[in-house]
Amino acid sequence: MKTEDAVLSEHDNGISFSAHTVNQNQIWKGSLDSVAFKPADIKDKLLNLDKPCYIVRAAGKIGVTNVGYLSQSDNNYTAPVQLVTAVPPISTQNFGDPTFLSFHGVKYAYATGAMAGGIASEEMVIALGKEKILSSFGAGGLSLDRLEAAIYRIQAALNSQPYAVNLIHSPNDQAIESRAVNLYLKHGVRTVEASAFLDLTANIVYYRAVGLGLNAANQIEIKNKVIAKVSRREVASKFLEPAPQKILTELVEQRLISELQATLAAKVPMADDITVEADSGGHTDNRPLVCLLPSIIALRDEIQAKYRYSTPIRVGVAGGIATPQSALAAFMMGAAYVMTGSINQSCIEAGSCQHTKQLLAQVEMADVMMAPAADMFEMGVKLQVLKRGTMFPMRAQKLYEIYRTYDSIESIPTQEKEKLEKQIFRKTLNQVWEETAAYLSQKNPEKLAKAINNPKIKMAAIFRWYLGLSSRWASSGEKGREVDYQIWCGPAMGSFNDWVRGSYLSAPNQRQVVDVANQIMQGSAFLYRMQSLKIQGLQIQDDYCQYYPLRSTLLGVK
Ligand SMILES: Cc1cc2nc3c(=O)[nH]c(=O)nc-3n(C[C@H](O)[C@H](O)[C@H](O)COP(=O)(O)O)c2cc1C
What we know:
Helices cover 42% and strands 16% of the residues. The chain is an alpha/beta fold. It has 3 domains: 7-89 and 525-543, no CATH class; 94-357, TIM Barrel; 391-486, no CATH class. A hairpin with a 2-residue loop joins strand 4 and strand 5. Helix 4 (144-158) packs parallel to helix 5, helix 7 packs parallel to helix 10 and helix 16 packs across helix 18.
């Protein structure tokens, strides 16, 4: 039923408006020739994001133009063209927190997260950094030499352009974390993405505090930036607060930081940015973004009220960001920046193999599941992986069930053991143990001793052979092991594939990280414009509001 206020004008080009939409105080002045009335032309005008959009009505038709100007309405003057409504230009730079842009020297509030084992590769970090987009190198699981080579390469290519390197907490071996920190300090890595921390360690506090100083104006200068990835309030609060006094005192005693740095560290938060990670690929608590983000923003506000930091900590989001819609929703909820992960693994620059990228390009939303994680296997910790095109999640789950049921390799029934050897390991469990023992004798003799003395630990070490290698096979493209590829992936991948279906981006060999980032941010800007028009009362047919990836930079957006 049409109310008094309802549709005043309805046209075959799919746009209509209500009486209350019409701007009574202003008129549009300009050439009627510039006004588009046909749907395809209208869409082009709407997509012209760096220009304003005037929605006008002339000779009973609704049209759209990007030119002309607004002027105060003069009651004695009847304009030939009636102004319905107008929206200003919009830039991708308008989204998120402007201090994220200036602090990190980036062009917009979009970043890509680390992907372990160099899946977030040097190529990825360099390609994004050159376009002033922040991206984190996937340092997790790499040897120190490999990591150092990556830092050399990234620094040589990027100069002063933005990049970060992942500092992943390793609960079982603090030395891994401390060696990484020393390497980052040695090479002047100025931004780390700290992840998987359950509590602060001396290593991350050292990295932060040793970069503090006073500038000429006696203000605190933060040289070592920390972006902390969290999915729980209790962990977030550790990074939102200043470093614990106890750790700072120990660092001073060890002469790793100065007294001044300890004093300054008590005045600044541990992190500059907190990435709230919702349901994502890899390790995840599977929390919904819409619940998690407001909760962490509220926590940030509470802590900010207590400490009154000169620059409040920014709260960004990761987990499920894959489309213009999801990015825009996050920004509208107050995210300081958005971070993508899963979708970048399907891009050309990712350090994963072609077969993995092909599988990822076919993923649908429900093609992912939680499976046992290699690093915390015994504790039953799971991570989110691809289930379509690989048997890994089912096989890893089987290993976990056997681990839970039996106390030693010897107590597994023969038939069950033979099945494992034939289907999963493709060698005898004895052979796997020999390989594992040889590896541990080099890397972790202490652990080897424990495994020799405890059959349950030995069983976990044997099963971890499969859990550890399967993710490497997925990156290196191990032939004949495709059904065992362990591919970390979240529902974001399916969401992305749905969005780009039918466009050039449906093929993985067309997916470039910079282009994907631009498309998502430009798409967000476009969708914002369309929502603004709708909120003002314009009724617009759905196909005007859809944003498909456009091959070239057709959009007039910076
Ligand atoms: C293949 C893969 C590997 C990942 N490895 C790491 C890692 O080593 N360190 C880390 O902080 N986050 C890691 N992540 C998480 C991403 O950095 C990012 O936070 C997450 O993927 C965002 O959620 P999304 O997958 O829904 O886009 C990984 C994600 C994927 C998909």
